[in-house]
Amino acid sequence: MTRPQRDRLAAAQAELLHALLGNGKPPEGFDPDRLRVEARALLNKRRGIVAMLRPDVADALGDRFRPLFADYARAHPRRAGSRAREDAAAFAEWAVAQGELPPPKKARWWRRRAT
Q: pTM score, two decimals?
């Protein structure tokens, strides 16, 4: 494969990922309905992982968790190489910054429990 071919392939892959993860336009030649279904499945999977890793956040947001996470995910697609725990922490920070959650309480040394 030549360099220009690799560059075109990389651009096409980036466009597809943006359509799936960042709410971008479907690339030419792809069925928009099928991409929408796949994008929804990926969003649900990502949201489920965040809820599993940060049940405190999901519980605190209650019914607002699903729509807020969808808003967050559209604006903040997962970065290549990022870990799920980083994604969950970033969502929690975003929710605090949006005023949807109170800021976390700072741990005080005299309040820590010995383990």
A: 0.79
